[in-house]
C-alpha cells in the first residue's frame, strides 16, 4: 500500500464525461490498496474566462477580489469529482483550500504556499475516504482566499504530497509524459523515461508548461517523487505504479538509469519556447558607470523581472544602446516607468516589440560538453533565423527571435541536436 497524490489538469476535467473518466482512474488506484488524495484544476478554458470577467468588471482589478473569482473554477470541479466518485460507490469529500487549510504568504494572484495543516486530511484518508482538493487555492494570513499563479495546481499537488508524506505525486495531463519538446509543435518529439529535477526546473522556467516551475522547485526541495502521465488512456493502460509516464528524478537516480541502459544521456534534454516575453530597446544611453543601474532599479522596485540583457558596444560619443526583455504582461508598466525616468536615464528613444519568442535548449550535459551553443547558432543561421539576444546558464542557452519563426526554430533545433524520434529508430 502506498499514499498517492493524483493531480488532474484542465483538459482532463473539462466536462462531466471527462470527470467520470477521471473518477474511474482514481477508483482503480484506490482499489489497488492505496490511500489517495486528488488535486484538480478548473475545466479547460474556465480560468481564462474568469480572468476576462475580472478585466471587464474593472481593468485595474483588486487582486484579492480577482482571487475570489478565479478560485471558483477549482471549487466547481472538486465538488463534481467528489459527487462522481460517490456515484461510483466510493467515499469521497472535497477539501477547499481554506478548509484544510493551505496557508499562503505573499501577494494575491501569485501566492506561495507556506504550510499545510494536513492532520484532518490524513485521518480522513486513513478511514478510506478519497480526499478531493481544488488546486490553485490557498488562504492568506488575513483569512482571505488566495491563488497560486497560473498553472498553480501542479504546485498544490506537490505541496499536498509533501505535507501528507506521499510516496508519489502523479500529474495526469493531456500528454503521456515530458517530451524532448512540446509534442504539439514537433511531431517527432520523443517521450523521456526520466528527467532530472534540475533539468525540469530549467525547462519549466523557460516555457515548457507541462509543469509549473514552482512545483518542480518544491518537489526538488521536499524530495517528492513526481510522475507526469496521461489521463487519456483506455482500460488496458499500464498502471501508474509501473511508471508509464515520465519520472522526475535526482541526478543519482538518473545516473543509475543510464548505467542500467534504461536511459541514454544526451547533451541536450529538451527544447522549450516562450512567446510571453517582450523586447525593450533604449537607444543612446550614456556609456558611463551607473547608467544601467538607473534603468533596472525602477523595474526591480516594481517587481518586473528582466530576463535577457544586451548592452551594445559603445558608440563614438560615449553612448550605447541597451536591449532587454520583460514579461509581456508587464510591458505597459515597464514602458510607463522608463518614460517617467527618461531624464534620469538619459536615453534617446524607447522602442518596444512584443512579437518576439525565446527559444531555449536545456541539458545537464552542457556542463561538460562544449559546442552546444554553437550548434544552436549554426542551425538557426542555416535557416536565416536572426538572433536578437542571447542568454546562457550552466545548463541552458536561450535566444530571442521573431515570434513568427518559433515553430520553425524549435523544429530545426530538435533535428540539429539529434532528438527526432526517427533518429532513434535509425
Ligand atoms: P494541464 O491542463 O493538464 O495542467 P498544461 O496545458 O498545463 O496541462 O500542460 C500540458 C501541455 O504542455 C501539453 O499539452 C503540451 O502541449 C505542453 N508541453 C510543452 N512542452 C512540453 C514538453 N516538453 N513535454 C510535454 N508537454 C509539453
Ligand atoms: N486553473 C488554473 C489555471 O488555469 C490553475 C491550474 O490549472 O493549474 O491557471
Ligand atoms: Mg498545467
UniProtKB/TrEMBL annotation:
Entry-linked SUPFAM superfamilies: ACT-like, Carbamate kinase-like
BP-aspect Gene Ontology terms: homoserine biosynthetic process; lysine biosynthetic process via diaminopimelate; threonine biosynthetic process
Pathway named in the protein's UniProt entry: Amino-acid biosynthesis; L-lysine biosynthesis via DAP pathway; (S)-tetrahydrodipicolinate from L-aspartate: step 1/4; Amino-acid biosynthesis; L-threonine biosynthesis; L-threonine from L-aspartate: step 1/5; Amino-acid biosynthesis; L-methionine biosynthesis via de novo pathway; L-homoserine from L-aspartate: step 1/3
A molecular-function term among this protein's GO annotations: ATP binding
Keyword Ribosomal protein listed: no
Entry EC number(s): 2.7.2.4
Binding-site residues for ATP, renumbered to this chain: 7-10, 173-174, 179, 184, 209-210
Catalysed transformations (reactions): L-aspartate + ATP = 4-phospho-L-aspartate + ADP
Positions of the ACT domain: 280-364
Cellular component per GO, a single term: cytosol
Binding sites annotated in the UniProt record for substrate: 47, 74
UniProt keyword Amino-acid biosynthesis present: yes
Keywords: Amino-acid biosynthesis, ATP-binding, Kinase, Lysine biosynthesis, Nucleotide-binding, Transferase
Similarity annotation: Belongs to the aspartokinase family.
Protein name, entry field: Aspartokinase
Lineage: Bacteria, Pseudomonadati, Pseudomonadota, Alphaproteobacteria, Sphingomonadales
Amino acid at each position: 500500500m502506498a499514499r498517492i497524490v493524483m493531480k488532474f489538469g484542465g483538459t482532463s476535467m473539462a466536462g462531466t464525461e471527462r470527470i467520470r473518466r477521471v473518477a474511474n482512474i482514481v477508483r482503480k488506484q484506490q482499489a489497488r490498496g492505496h490511500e489517495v488524495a486528488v488535486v484538480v484544476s478548473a475545466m479547460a478554458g474556465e480560468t481564462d474566462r474568469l480572468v476576462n470577467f475580472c478585466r471587464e468588471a474593472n481593468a485595474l482589478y483588486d487582486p484579492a477580489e480577482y482571487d475570489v473569482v478565479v478560485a471558483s473554477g477549482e471549487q466547481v470541479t472538486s465538488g463534481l469529482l467528489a459527487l462522481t466518485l460517490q456515484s461510483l460507490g466510493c467515499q469521497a469529500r472535497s477539501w477547499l483550500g481554506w478548509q484544510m487549510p493551505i496557508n499562503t504568504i505573499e501577494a494575491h494572484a501569485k501566492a506561495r504556499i507556506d504550510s499545510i495543516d494536513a492532520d484532518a486530511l490524513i485521518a480522513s484518508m486513513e478511514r478510506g475516504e478519497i480526499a478531493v482538493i481544488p488546486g490553485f487555492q490557498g488562504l492568506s494570513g488575513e483569512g482571505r482566499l488566495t491563488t497560486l499563479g497560473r498553472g498553480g495546481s501542479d504546485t498544490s499537488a506537490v505541496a499536498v504530497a509533501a505535507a501528507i508524506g506521499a510516496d508519489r505525486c502523479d500529474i495526469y495531463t493531456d500528454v503521456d509524459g515530458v517530451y524532448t519538446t512540446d509534442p504539439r509543435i514537433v511531431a517527432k518529439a520523443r517521450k523521456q523515461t526520466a528527467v532530472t529535477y534540475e533539468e525540469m526546473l530549467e525547462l519549466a522556467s523557460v516555457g515548457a508548461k507541462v509543469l509549473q516551475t514552482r512545483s518542480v522547485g518544491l518537489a526538488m526541495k521536499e524530495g517528492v517523487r513526481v510522475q507526469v502521465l496521461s489521463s487519456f488512456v483506455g482500460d488496458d493502460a499500464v498502471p501508474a505504479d509501473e511508471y508509464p509516464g515520465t519520472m522526475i528524478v535526482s541526478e543519482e537516480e538518473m545516473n543509475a538509469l543510464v548505467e542500467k541502459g534504461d536511459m541514454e544521456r544526451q547533451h541536450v534534454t529538451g527544447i522549450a519556447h516562450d512567446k510571453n516575453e517582450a523586447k525593450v530597446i533604449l537607444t543612446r544611453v550614456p556609456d558611463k558607470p551607473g547608467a544601467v543601474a538607473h534603468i533596472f532599479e525602477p523595474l526591480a522596485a516594481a517587481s518586473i523581472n528582466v530576463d535577457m540583457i544586451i548592452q551594445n558596444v559603445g558608440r563614438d560619443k560615449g553612448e550605447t544602446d541597451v536591449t532587454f526583455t520583460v514579461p509581456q504582461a508587464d510591458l505597459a508598466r515597464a514602458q510607463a516607468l522608463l518614460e517617467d525616468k527618461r531624464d534620469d536615464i538619459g536615453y534617446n528613444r524607447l522602442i518596444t516589440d512584443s512579437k518576439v519568442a525565446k527559444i531555449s535548449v536545456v541539458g545537464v550535459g552542457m556542463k561538460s560538453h562544449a559546442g552546444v551553443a554553437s550548434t544552436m547558432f549554426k542551425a538557426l543561421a542555416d535557416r536565416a533565423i536572426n538572433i536578437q539576444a542571447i542568454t546562457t546558464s550552466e545548463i541552458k542557452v536561450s535566444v530571442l527571435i521573431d515570434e513568427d519563426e518559433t515553430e520553425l526554430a524549435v523544429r530545426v533545433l530538435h533535428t540539429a541536436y539529434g532528438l527526432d524520434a526517427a533518429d532513434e529508430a535509425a
